[in-house]
Amino acid sequence: MGDLTPRTGDTPPKQDRSRATRRRLLEAAVACLAERGWSGSTVSVVAEAAGVSRGAAQHHFRTREELFLAAVEYVAEERSQALRALGGRSRAEVVEALVALYTGPLFRAALHLWVAASDEPQLRPRVTELEARVGREAHRMAVELLGADEAEPGVRETVQGLLDMARGLGLATLLTDDAARRQRVVAQWSRLLDEALG
Amino acid sequence: MGDLTPRTGDTPPKQDRSRATRRRLLEAAVACLAERGWSGSTVSVVAEAAGVSRGAAQHHFRTREELFLAAVEYVAEERSQALRALGGRSRAEVVEALVALYTGPLFRAALHLWVAASDEPQLRPRVTELEARVGREAHRMAVELLGADEAEPGVRETVQGLLDMARGLGLATLLTDDAARRQRVVAQWSRLLDEALG
């Protein structure tokens, strides 16, 4: 505010600050959703956690829906980039990393958003569209990292079932930390998957 | 009220009526949870849907928590009995029936209860305990119906992974009806399971 002089420097610090604020808001929004659920997640709560004024938060995201949809999408993209770095790892390591995608705070946040969307008509189509996009990207990455040949009959469904299993394992961690059980299931299905994919 | 004369007839109609009212409340509670989620599910809404007065509903269930926990447990038991009738079917049919357990209104209702419990400290321990009990029963039934020998290494984890996949498929149906995709995944994983169990 008030600074209307055109900048001539080689870095635009105002734009950098704005981007950093946006990122802080998105990260705080995912953490908030994962910890407090949809009913406890408001723009005010997120702004406070991010150390940003409510006005600044609303400058970035006009509505609560916009903030949380953008947050889930942002973190999903971050995770997708992390997955890409796994190229060349063994299948067992890839399966472990895929399952980890569904058992962390991102999945927990996304789960709260899905469940809220299932009852809220104005949120539902946007969350459905986001979920389909994130799901397709996860599938594409899984096929690539596992070296699966989708031209072979059954391979596409084998990989889809693996991602469904990962989602189910994520759901099981919602109430109790069952990491030990999960590890044994993942090890066994990695072996079965390895045989199935040849 | 007022009827204090001891009954001498061979059927106790009052007790029968009470049991029928209880059952109607439990069924309405599951439907309500599946359709409106936790925040839209109150004793009043359920009582109205069941055609029971609020006072009568509170005579059966003192608190909202009691009503919905009992409802999820009741329907889980009904489903479990339906599963028992599947003895002697092929593995593919059993897998299909197991997956159906996780894609109907019961799972949808349970999912809303789990997600609500994950943020509500007074609900969480009871839902966690109920979920563990229902999960153990589903596992026990799956082992029996699939003719799986848990003494063999890996078999226990193979069956657990199958139930996790079913749970993940259930989650995928929350926002979109993906029955066609699900059918293909289930057919393929039935084949993998059949090979794994021998």
From TrEMBL, chains A, B:
Q: Which residue ranges does the Swiss-Prot or TrEMBL entry mark as DNA-binding? A: 42-61
Question: Which PANTHER family does the record associate with it?
Answer: HTH-TYPE TRANSCRIPTIONAL REGULATOR PKSA, HTH-TYPE TRANSCRIPTIONAL REGULATOR RUTR
* Gene, per the UniProt record: acnR_1
Q: Does the keyword Amino-acid biosynthesis apply?
A: no
| Sequence segments annotated as region (Disordered) | 1-20
Residue ranges annotated for the HTH tetR-type domain, each copy included: 19-79
Q: Specify the protein name.
A: HTH-type transcriptional repressor AcnR
GO terms for molecular function, please?
DNA-binding transcription factor activity; transcription cis-regulatory region binding
Question: What are the record keywords, sorted?
Answer: DNA-binding
One matching Pfam family is: TetR_N
